[in-house]
Input
Amino acid sequence: MEEPSTISTKYFSPAAQASMKHALSTWAKQNRVRPRDFARQMGYSPSYGWSLLRGTAPVTIPTLGLFLLRYGVKAADELLEVFRTIHTGEIFSTQPIQPSPGE
Output
């Protein structure tokens, strides 16, 4: 399964996107989840899993939904707790996420 190219009507604000990227990377380090294992568990290609954990690919709302399904409620709660400790402010935007150069 590859990452959907579009998401519904809400997107993460740029600041929330940066915080979520950091939170996902931090969660993976704290739980000793290797990029290859993350990609396999999520059903992504190894390169896309690596890009998510490096913070070079956007973390979308569908990514979080799949994370919840594949890793469970406890892991999702841990991820969101990391997010809450580093992010204050607006979370959603109506503007689509702009891809990083080279994506």
In short: The longest strand covers residues 11-12. Helices lie at 14-30, 35-42, 46-54, 61-71, 73-86.
